[in-house]
Predict the 3D structure of the following.
Amino acid sequence: MIVITRIKKIRKFKDPVVALGVFDGLHRGHRNILQAAVKKAKEIKGTSIALTFFPHPQKEKSLYSLKHRLRLISELGVDVCIVINFSLSFAKMSAENFIAKILAKKIRSRFIYIGKNFHFGKGALGDCRLLSTRAKENNFNLKIFKVIKSNGRLVSSTAIRRLINGGKIKGAERLLGRRVSVLGSVIRGSRIARALGFPTANINPHHEVIPPPGIYAVQVIFAAKKYGGICYIGSRPTVCARKDHLQIEVHIFGFHKKIYGRFLEIQFVKLIRRDKKFVSMKDLTVQIKKDIISCRKILQRSC
């Protein structure tokens, strides 16, 4: 997938089919729009384009980092992703100018696909109705996608963010249409877990929304391969007095490579237990062994 991060770098593409949205989280509704754009582009032998924004226009904490979002968009088969820098100056562009100057003149959109509740332009005044009134004069066709529901709940990034923050992993999973996950780079840690006999990869999650502290059975994606593992999220109360700094560590079963600086995706399968302080390191070690046994059993049933 071609990634373009500057408006002036946008070049002419053949018959662009543009999926327009922030696409934070790439939930079921987002994927419906993107997959439909990919399908239409193939039908007309055109170019599927995802047009998104970073940072988040509503100043929300992103479900996924930009790198994670781009990875998921690419996996859907999108040809090109245009990432518009949502700067203070860009935020002043009116919805009408965005349609005329970016969607019509710069990209030369032939089709535009958009969710019914998506807004754009200065003051978020642009919406699907405005696009509909401007479609003919700007030579594009518009397709509007309804907001979908899951078990009576609207599928939205806001709802998913709330569920993850509340530790309701399975609920978030249902709205996403896939497992809750975090993408991050491997950084150097204190090596305490290694000293206990359980080497871990310490993860910098790049400001993604992460589940609450606890021990989780997980699957880990590294270099396009999937591994089972156990993930710890917490402040390490048994060995550290600080409570304001969360650590994310993952012990990958049967994995012994040095991967500092590389990216891992951690997919959360199930919460094993909440984080807590142990009386001694010996007690902590005994519990970790029990947690690993529990994780292996869960992964055997779930994966």
